[in-house]
Amino acid sequence: MKAGSTSPRRRYCIVGAGYFGLGAAKALRDDGVPYDHLAGGNGVGNTLTETLMATSSKRSIEHPDYPVPEEWPEFPGEGRIRAYLRDFAREHDLDGKIEFGRSVKGARPLDGRDGHSGWRLELEDGEIRHYAGIVLTEARTQKPRVDLPGHFSGKRVYATNEEETRDLEDERVLVIGDGNLACAIATRIGRRSRKCYVSTRGGSLLPETLLGVPLSELEERLWWLSDERFLGRLVGPLSRMILRDQPPSRLLRRDLLEEPIVSSEALHQIRRGALEVKPEVARFDGEDVHFVDGSVAAVDAVVHVPSERDVALPVGEELLKYENGVPVRVGSVFLPGLTNCYLFGPLITRGGSGRIISEGSEVLARAIRAQEELSHPLVEDLARMWPPDSRLPLSPAAVLREIRALRRCIDGIVLYGRFRGYTAGMPPAIPPAPAQHENASTARKEALST
To answer: What CATH class is the domain 150-304?
Structure first.
């Protein structure tokens, strides 16, 4: 363990073993921070993240210290991304520490207030654990609103990935949802369905490449690509294909530009008629779907897709503040009023996350170290410089700028705290979980043996 590392009694918990979860685990291990790693699935990876990153180039998804194979195509796709994650975990000896099949049901501060004294985690099987802090790298998507007016006589499906829509081949399908996830599922359905519609509130549509260069790589190198005014001029002609009945001023609305959809295949399917974009649904009438613009379409199935921004965190809702259904955050990672609770992954970016995860996980480890040293919540200092908001980052380049600014702020806060005497030394140990819940799996084994 490194000199000056945290006490073994102050252990942290990483929730999720996807792209961001593995990055966080490597950073904490390299920095000597004790941690447990819980994952609800049975293997490395996160289907939602992999789907959203399927339109990212191989150079933009790789970790700087673990390059992707040279022979891979420019856009690897979900299968190769999943294989890359497994190899990354094996190469850095991270997979052996992950407890698979351990979903977190809820998380609450031990002191009932802000979490400065630690966190109480309840797992789905009833086990209770206490930690100094928690790192949430994935979150459950909330089910979308399905109580639309009228009666639909066909099939209705709730889907977060392509596998859940495989039985809709050769049918007329309507996908209802906003953002990159809904677009990704709609384009996959459009390949094999008789006709596919996608109902959305609007947004900007971008190709995966610009002048032959992957957009996710251009955004990292050219910061002005994420500038709102430039993006509006770039996507205006493309978006008018989708929002053809909307006034041009709607194309420059900030809430639409913050979540651009990236898909060259969607553009191709729209042009050849395999995919047709519709506005919001007004009502159902048997197999007919009536839209707010007065148009009608007959469909055999409706697929409801959650927005990637509508996430359900295991932290109690009364501890969080929401704006437009999105948790308010400080610098995308910290939750106002909560100490030692970090949101690393959900709501950060739509793709191109290799460097974001590498640099962001290092900042995460710095934040944990800083909070161990400071006598007051780090998030309070950051909130003074970084007003809390629910804004979603516009591009990977914008996220990287935010992460680098966070690193400078954290380093400055620690230096100022040392100068002013705002450090408290090693914080107290976290109290153990109640004995009756300390190891639920052991209790089950003992019950079976008797």
So the answer is: alpha beta
